[in-house]
Design brief:
The structure holds three protein chains of three kinds. By secondary structure, chain A is an alpha+beta fold. Chain A has two domains: 4-59, no CATH class; 73-157, 3-Layer(aba) Sandwich (Glutaredoxin), CATH 3.40.30. In chain A, 49% of the residues lie in helices and 11% in strands. A four-stranded mixed beta sheet of chain A has the order 2-1-3-4, with helices on one face. Chain A is elongated. The mean pLDDT of chain A is 96. By secondary structure, chain B is an alpha/beta fold. Chain B has four domains: 5-92, Ubiquitin-like (UB roll) (Roll), CATH 3.10.20.740; 124-212, Alpha-Beta Plaits (2-Layer Sandwich); 216-275 and 337-409, Rossmann fold; 282-333 and 427-587, Fe-only Hydrogenase (Larger Subunit), Chain L, domain 3. Chain B has helices at 23-29, 81-96, 112-119, 157-165, 200-204, 216-223, 255-265, 273-296, 313-322, 336-352, 369-373, 393-402, 424-427, 434-448, 498-509, 539-555, 565-575, 581-587, and strands at residues 5-10, 13-18, 53-56, 63-64, 74-77, 145-147, 172-174, 181-183, 210-212, 229-234, 269-272, 307-308, 359-365, 389-392, 468-474, 489-496, 517-521. In chain B, the strands form five sheets. Chain B has a five-stranded mixed beta sheet, sandwiched between helices. In chain B, strands 11-10-13-14 form a four-stranded parallel beta sheet, with helices on both faces. A four-stranded mixed beta sheet of chain B has the order 12-17-16-15, covered by helices on one side. In chain B, α15 links the parallel β16 (489-496) and β17. The longest helix of chain B has 24 residues, at 273-296. Chain B starts with a strand and ends in a 10-residue tail after the last helix. In chain B, 55% of the residues are buried. Chain C is of the alpha/beta class. In chain C, the strands form three sheets. A five-stranded mixed beta sheet of chain C has the order 6-5-11-8-9. A four-stranded parallel beta sheet of chain C has the order 3-2-1-4, with helices on both faces. In chain C, α11 (303-317) crosses α15 and α12 (323-340) packs antiparallel against α13. Chain C is globular and about 70 Å long. The model of chain C has no long low-confidence stretch (mean pLDDT 96). The chains are: A alpha+beta, B alpha/beta, C alpha/beta. Chains A and C meet through α2 and α5 of A and β5, β11 and α11 of C.
């Protein structure tokens, strides 16, 4: 696996050494490392010749550019009204119980982080959740559990 | 190219203004003041506080006067019912997220939000109090700056100051929505990040969210401690600005009144940093000539040029963070404040028969970075902390008020001697280009035996408010011992404000500039625009302060540092010669690289 | 009950005899001014919600003198209750690309960007592949236009066009002061046309079927059709393309579950229409305009919860830079909580309504300006549900 610094260099190389590349570079880091560590942020600041505070300020604007450690699999359950009406609370409850974490927390083994999200754009098929970039519509608590179990199995294999 | 004139009406009064003028500027021309908070004459337009909203006939939305250019036929109302209701709402909203405990605030009476609240007679709070308890925990990690998020109204002036004017970006806007705030890299305390302590953010903060760390009580305690001998030094730029905080108009010099006030406050001796400014010129000028000699005669490849001034502690810390590879370019001279402290607790203490441990050295500075500087571990060459407390010009004004001194009525008094004598060269340290001018006045004369070839010693090319200034002086007919400088074109550059400094450093790094000597001042306009100077600040105010400085210089009998008799005395009695052994121990220092975040 | 609701099939219609690729090649042979005239004639207004006439927007950009111009597809669909752009991106992306290429030709832009919201990252892979093919096709046909994909990272406000430019420039997605408008200074401060996904598809289709056919649909103020995202208490949630200008009661008859209490038209930032007003509410620019979100609530739903949910959303998703929006949203949210708990009197709701009046005219962008829509329409129609 690439070191953070090498990853940043590679992303900057690919996207270009300009401010306009900041988003794709940060997105690329999150893709690989699940969040933006201090080292990653500093490395980006150095490579793009930006102030570290500016990079952090920009990243912190975006919900998906986390600057606190996250698990390998990030679960985002949509909390907007239509998903709310269709039972997102129950989905969150079973996930929270199964993973033994509250919303906003990461499991001890760093495999899962449970979050909520604003409208994910699947209001006709709520409740819905994202696991990393994968979307899971028409959830029931049971279905949500099965999906997470699948991820857990994959983790064990790996 | 002349611009088109645009015709419009403001509050039914017709006016024609140049295309591109904002509604705010046009209204001002008609003597209508539209209130502002996020707007500042030194900064780019933000348009985010919305306090300046005005009604434009036919428009669905109110327009932010600061951010909206005029257009032909526009009809603007700055105080219509819609405007009044909205503006009051906006002030109320700001107050609802602001810790409005005004009587306990350091900025009480000097707060733009408080002024607006008073103007709009905001009574009972309509809205809910949104101040987050955790925001009330102040960041007091920096010896210079206190950050209090509970007072912050997110106008972002500080962020723009730190970024646009200073090129530092220690501060940034973070998060969004209800979590948005002004913070540092990963919310680290100010003393851990690239903050240079320049304090320019303080000068532009409309509320008490950013203030200087104040040491007023400590100084009162020292003054009233009978076992302490308290001496005070005053920086060049204080005397041309102190009056602004004491009811005197901008640009009026108050040197004599300031000395009188300091004596009334109870300081045992009132001395002048100008004295060590002259001393700095002797040391720094000699250092420059030595470096030039080593480079030109000895062909010593280890000698580093251009040499850069080291008087401005904000600039020094900037360099330590941003350009550690250029630290050897910095003159090793301590700043005048620190030279003063070192000399006061050795040479001067001996002379007046006071033990150094019983002496307290207080500085009155136009600067908040000086508070950090005096606490640097390198600044203890007297065996004690050389300078004990640094007060800003503003803090001194507060002490004068607290003591009930009627400043305006004071008769002029003179500095005490010794360490109170100064020259015009020292006074102009307070303006951008001043150190350069002072150094040239002395160095040129040392080398050629003649005065600098400028009318009345006024080296006009290094003066003025241009961000980066360049000048060249041809050295001709030198004294025999300086023959290596015959015909040399001495190239100098001057920058003020750290964004300009950065631009200049990039040129130096790329080898695009063949300078011998560079003067940098961390603050816009130099010390006269320092982070410890009276608030508000603007290009006009700084221009008037600069005029005051140069007129003070013009009126001085002695205008060259090497002619200061007390300077001659300290060399003959104590220091020996510039760059000599004792100077090296007391007046010179070193720098360290710092992290860049 | 009789129902005149007219379902339309323009957006998703697939005609193998005239593909989007055929449309672009054919259209680019026509004079640009003629295309603009067609768009103006068609009466097409932006489908993102704001409703600016598309033809005019293109014309403004065309008239700007600049070597570099951009065409941007706003695929930052984030309005709660809206999901039509995702379906369009998934099912007929070539129609979007074609709209962009035609726009590029008309205004004189060589680069197009699709700004896709981060929540739709699963579309990145298929879209990238289709884009590569499409760009190759353009190249083979000597059409000097290339489309790139940019991705957001979870920020509703980036759907505001100037915030979207900021985000593309690697900054916080904070809306800019206007003027200048995007057609003068948009992405990289260059003249930029930014259109919603659906709008771009309609431009493609107008170029294909002609403005007349489009004009025949809808009403005087709301020409054509529109894709609606139907969700909430409905037996048939999903995407429907309907003629504009329909009365809301017809919509409810078609999609409601028989017990409809209210419809939130236009997403969280739209208006809540109670049952008693279904008959005289027109969906269109003359009545209630919408970006397409139609959320249906039946009598079992608490309108306090609905409003609370919306306000929480705005308090979180406000960019935070301007006072009316940043503080206003929090005050509205905390305000209804305080009234609910009895910490403030019901009359405080009227103070808050006045505050939304200020937000509407003094906030910097559409986000803060529109929070009053759901607030006032829910308070006015369901006041007792908020209080008790």
């Amino acid at each position: 696996m690439l070191t953070t610094e090498a990853l940043v260099k590679e992303l900057v190389e690919k996207n270009g050494k300009t401010r306009n590349s900041l988003m794709p570079v940060l997105q690329g880091i999150v893709q690989k490392e699940h969040y933006l560590s201090e080292e990653a942020l500093l490395s980006v600041a150095r490579e793009l010749d930006l102030s570290a505070a500016d990079v952090y300020g920009t990243a912190s604007f975006y919900t998906f550019l986390d600057t606190v450690p996250r698990g390998k699999n990030i679960i985002r359950v949509c909390k907007t009204i239509t998903c709310h009406m269709k039972g997102k609370d129950e989905v969150i409850k079973v996930l929270s119980n199964a993973l033994k974490v509250k919303v906003g927390e990461t499991t001890h083994d760093k495999k899962f982080t449970l979050l909520t999200a604003n409208c994910l754009g699947w209001c006709h098929k709520g409740p819905v959740m994202l696991v990393n970039d994968e979307i899971y519509p028409d959830l029931t608590p049971q279905k949500a559990l099965e999906i997470i179990e699948e991820y857990a199995k994959e983790e064990k294999k790996a | 190219m002349s611009k088109y004139l645009v015709n419009l009406k403001i509050n039914n009064m017709p006016i024609a203004v140049e295309e591109g003028t904002t509604i705010l500027e046009a209204a001002k021309k008609l003597n209508f003041r539209v209130p502002t908070l996020c707007n500042h004459p030194d900064l780019t337009v933000a348009g985010n506080c919305r306090v300046c909203v005005v009604e434009v006939k036919g428009a669905r939305l109110l327009a932010a006067a600061c951010a909206t250019p005029v257009s032909e036929g526009m009809e603007v109302f700055t105080n219509s019912e819609k405007v009044r209701v909205s503006r009051k709402h906006i002030v109320e909203l700001l107050l609802s997220e602001h810790n409005a405990d005004c009587t306990k605030c350091f900025k009480n009476g000097h707060c733009e939000l408080q002024d607006l609240a008073s103007e709009y007679r905001i009574g009972d709070h309509v809205f809910l109090d949104l101040v987050k308890p955790e925001s009330k925990i102040q960041d007091i990690s920096s010896p210079s700056i206190v950050k209090d998020d509970s007072k912050c109204i997110r106008c972002q002036r500080c962020v723009r100051t730190c970024t646009e004017l200073q090129g530092v970006s220690a501060l940034a806007v973070i998060n969004k929505g209800d979590h948005q705030k002004i913070s540092t890299f990963l919310n680290k305390p100010l003393h851990e990040v690239v903050c240079t302590n320049c304090g320019q953010c303080i000068n532009r903060c409309p509320t008490g969210a950013l203030t200087e760390r104040n040491y007023i009580e400590e100084v009162w305690n020292a003054i009233y401690n009978p076992s302490k001998f308290v001496v005070v030094q005053t920086a060049p730029a204080t005397r041309i600005a102190l009056g602004e905080d004491l009811g005197i108009q901008v640009g009026e010099r108050v040197t004599g009144k300031m000395v009188a006030a300091l004596k009334k406050l109870g300081f045992n001796k009132v001395l002048d940093t100008d004295f060590t400014a002259d001393l700095t010129i002797m040391e720094e000028g000699t250092e420059l000539l030595t470096r030039l000699k080593r480079a030109l005669v000895d062909k010593d490849e280890t000698v580093v040029l251009p040499m850069m001034t080291s008087c401005s502690p904000g600039w020094i810390k900037f360099q330590e963070h941003m350009y550690p590879e250029l630290l050897d370019n910095l003159s090793t001279c301590k700043s005048p404040q620190q030279m003063f402290g070192a000399v006061a607790k050795t040479y001067y203490a001996d002379k007046i028969n006071i033990k150094a441990q019983d002496m307290i050295v207080v500085s009155i500075m136009p600067c908040v970075a000086k508070k950090f500087e005096c606490e640097r571990p390198e600044m203890r060459d007297s065996g004690y902390q050389d300078v004990d407390y640094v007060l800003t010009t503003r803090e001194l004004a507060m002490m004068i008020k607290q003591a009930g001194i009627d400043f305006d009525k004071l008769e002029d008094e003179h500095y005490d001697s010794i360490l109170g004598e100064s020259t015009g060269a020292a006074v102009i340290f307070g303006a951008t280009g001043g150190v350069m001018e002072a150094a040239l006045r002395t160095a040129y004369e040392i080398v050629t035996g003649r005065e600098v070839p400028f009318t009345n010693l006024n080296i006009k090319p290094v003066r003025g408010m241009e961000g980066i200034k360049e000048a060249s002086i041809k050295i001709k007919n030198v004294k025999p011992e300086w023959s290596f400088l015959e015909g040399v074109e001495l190239n100098v550059a001057i920058a003020h404000g750290l964004a300009n400094a950065r631009a200049l450093m990039e040129k130096v790094k790329k080898g695009e500039a063949a300078y011998h000597f560079i003067e940098i001042m961390g603050c816009p306009g130099g010390c006269l625009g320092g982070g410890g100077q009276p608030i508000p600040t603007s290009p006009e105010i700084r221009k008037k302060r600069a005029e005051a400085i140069y007129s003070e210089d013009a009126e001085m009998t002695i205008r060259k540092s090497h002619e200061n008799p007390e300077v001659a005395e300290i060399y003959s009695e104590f220091l020996g010669e510039p760059l000599g052994h004792k100077s090296h121990d007391l007046l010179h220092t070193h720098y360290k690289p710092r992290k860049r975040y | 009950m009789e129902n005149n609701l007219k379902k339309v099939d323009i957006i998703f219609e697939i005609d193998d005899k005239c593909t989007p690729l055929d449309v672009v090649v054919k259209t680019l042979k026509r004079p640009a001014d003629e295309i603009i005239l067609d768009l103006i004639d068609s009466g097409l207004k932006g489908r993102g919600g704001a409703g600016f006439p598309t033809g005019l927007k293109w014309k403004f950009a065309r008239n700007e003198d600049s070597d570099v111009k951009y065409v941007i597809c706003n695929a930052d669909e984030g309005e709660p209750g809206t999901f039509k752009d995702r379906e369009i991106l998934d099912r007929v992306p070539e129609k979007i690309f074609t709209g962009m290429a035609i726009c590029g030709y008309v205004v004189g832009a060589k680069e197009g960007y699709i700004y896709l919201r981060g929540e739709y990252n699963f579309l990145l892979k298929p879209l990238t592949k289709k884009l590569e093919e499409y760009n190759l096709f353009l190249k083979k046909n000597n059409i000097d236009f290339n489309i790139y994909l940019k991705s957001g990272s979870g920020a509703y406000v980036c759907g505001e066009e100037s915030a979207l430019f900021e985000s593309m420039e690697g900054k916080r997605g904070e809306p800019r002061n206007k003027p200048p408008y995007p057609t003068v200074a948009g992405y990289n401060s260059k003249p930029t046309v930014i259109n919603n996904v659906e709008t771009l598809v309609y431009t493609t289709m107008i170029c294909r079927i002609g403005p007349e056919k489009f004009r025949e649909l809808g009403t005087k103020d709301s020409r054509g059709s529109k894709v609606f995202s139907v969700s909430g208490d409905t037996p048939v949630p999903g995407i429907y393309e309907l003629e504009l200008g329909m009365p809301l009661h017809e919509f409810v008859n078609e999609f409601g579950d028989g017990d409809v209490k209210a419809v939130q038209v236009g997403g969280a930032s739209g208006h809540c229409v109670p049952r008693k007003k279904f008959n005289d509410t027109i969906i269109g620019f003359e009545g209630i305009p919408t970006g397409g979100s139609m959320m249906i609530f039946n009598s079992s739903r608490s309108m306090y919860n609905v409003l609370h949910d919306y306000l929480e959303f705005f308090a979180e998703e406000s960019c935070g830079q301007c006072t009316p929006c940043r503080v206003g949203c929090q005050q509205l949210l905390k305000g209804i909580e305080a009234v609910k708990k009895g910490e403030r009197s019901p009359a405080y709701l009227d103070d808050l309504k006045k505050l939304t009046g200020t937000m509407k005219i003094a906030a910097k962008c559409g986000l803060g300006q529109s929070v009053g829509n759901p607030f006032n329409s829910i308070i006015d129609n369901f006041r007792e549900e908020i209080i008790y």
